[in-house]
Amino acid sequence: MEKEIIEERQGEILVQECSTKNTKKMFLESYGCQMNFSDSEIVASILSNEGYNTTSLLEEADLILLNTCSIRDKAEQTVRKRLSQFNAIKRKNPNLVIGVLGCMAERLKAKFLEEEHLVDLVVGPDAYRDLPNLLKNTDDGRNAINVLLSKEETYADISPIRLGGNGVTAFVSITRGCDNMCTFCVVPFTRGRERSRDPHSILKECKELRENGYKEITLLGQNIDSYLWYGGGPKKDFSKASELQKATAINFAQLLNMVAEACPEIRIRFSTSNPQDMHEEVLHVMAKHNNICKYIHLPVQSGSTSVLQRMNRQHTREEYIYLVDKIREIVPDCAISHDIITGFCGETEEEHQETLSLMKYVKYDFGYMFAYSERPGTVAHKKMEDDIPAEIKSRRLKEIINLQQELSLERMKTYINKVHEVLVEGTSKKSKEQWYGRISQNAVVVFTKTDNTKVGDFVNVLVNGCTSATLIGEII
Ligand code: 5AD
Ligand code: SF4
């Protein structure tokens, strides 16, 4: 489990035949968060119209695209290592175009072309509509770049091509960008200003997924609770809205309610919630609808108010605890997971202990834990000192991971001897005779296949055992 939590996610090769008529081949690999994965599906859709199908074979690709992540230095190093593997392929096929998309493209801009001579194309997260033009520019061996950020782009009208999926679970992105300006974070610089997508296009996409047999939708946004749509525009400047616009605005709780009602037999999940923006109204909507999964990913980053202040997190330890108490009161069976950064600038031993004690208070189901990695251009980089030695960061990280493992095991045990509704998502990696799926609280369950079950079925599973990461059960 430790390995899974602290290692950067490896690239995921995304394959799906886009159109039988298409003859050109692209190799598309996505790094980083779910949002990046969702963006890759938009890229596949745009390039499908340009005659491209995806391939999992590097050797037959006309175009290699890496959709990259900048969140920690290690994520960037992984991409650079991957790029160096393409040298030999490019030597064999000089017409091959290699493109870098996403957050690293946005952060490094033209510098990428100088530093990595292999790269022909650099495209930021808001410029994917320009890909067809940019690709034309590379026809005669020139480089092409577009890293303009937009205040409006939501790709609302583009139908994503669902990649590498099981035909059952899908992501639908509803906001882009982030205005929070946490001092450690590169995302506001790589993904730009926050903007919300037209609710009609969101509902349309959800209904299409339902018609195509999908059974679970995860609504995505870097800061999903600040979703706000009003008066026909995604602009964030709500203070300038007219009275009518204010009266008819749609917030996240209302949107969630609309999606849950429009797709009653589909499971709805959402991510990511930031504590300062999450409202009680969302909790009431969760409690009201059986089809909204009882799971909230609620990053905390640190359990210490002074560290939270240095991180510019806009909430205290006490406010976070108040929110957790509200969740327990309004949605009692809700699972909660976290993101925690250890060893942030100036973190004392006492502040670290406060993180451990908060974890014990919340009894998190699960968590993603990271050692602080200084990112160029952020406020922490400019104004604070990355002064916690690597050994201390790593020791504190281990303590946090060990504690989380204990807490996860405790939480998993509470699911034993109970029947849970599980969506069958696929064959278990460990055994062909077993399915895997998730319960509403997002815990993975493995159970023996029966003759009459298939991927996409909802089944009732009696859980009779567990590890800290997986539940084990039987269909009843
Ligand atoms: N160093 C380490 N972890 C980071 N995260 C964001 N920026 C950094 C950084 N500079 C973590 C946060 C965030 C998650 C997506 O990644 O915990 O919630
Ligand atoms: Fe990585 Fe953040 Fe960009 Fe996602 S938004 S790809 S986590 S840097």
What's the short story on this structure?
By secondary structure, this protein is an alpha/beta fold. The protein has helices spanning 2-6, 34-48, 73-84, 87-92, 102-108, 110-115, 131-137, 187-191, 199-211, 243-247, 252-262, 280-288, 305-310, 317-330, 349-362, 379-383, 390-413, and strands spanning 12-14, 24-30, 52-54, 63-68, 97-101, 121-123, 144-146, 169-173, 175-176, 195-196, 216-220, 228-229, 250-251, 267-271, 295-297, 335-342, 366-371, 419-427, 434-438, 444-448, 458-466, 470-475.
Summarize the structure in words.
With 476 residues, the chain is α/β, with parallel strands linked by helices. The chain has three domains: 2-146, Methylthiotransferase, N-terminal domain (Rossmann fold, 3-Layer(aba) Sandwich), CATH 3.40.50; 169-413, pyruvate-formate lyase- activating enzyme (Alpha-Beta Horseshoe), CATH 3.80.30; 419-475, Beta Barrel (OB fold (Dihydrolipoamide Acetyltransferase, E2P)), CATH 2.40.50. Helix content is 34%, strand content 22%. The chain is built from 17 helices and 22 strands. The strands form six sheets. Strands 1, 2, 3, 4, 5, 6 and 7 form a seven-stranded mixed sheet that branches. Strands 18-19-20-22-21 form a five-stranded mixed β-barrel. The site of iron/sulfur cluster has 13 residues, from helix 2, helix 5 and helix 8.
Q: Which structural traits does this protein have?
A:
3 domains, Rossmann fold, OB fold (Dihydrolipoamide Acetyltransferase, E2P), pyruvate-formate lyase- activating enzyme, binds iron/sulfur cluster, single chain, 476 residues, 17 helices, alpha/beta, globular, binds 5'-deoxyadenosine, 34% helix, tRNA-2-methylthio-N(6)-dimethylallyladenosine synthase, iron-sulfur, tRNA processing
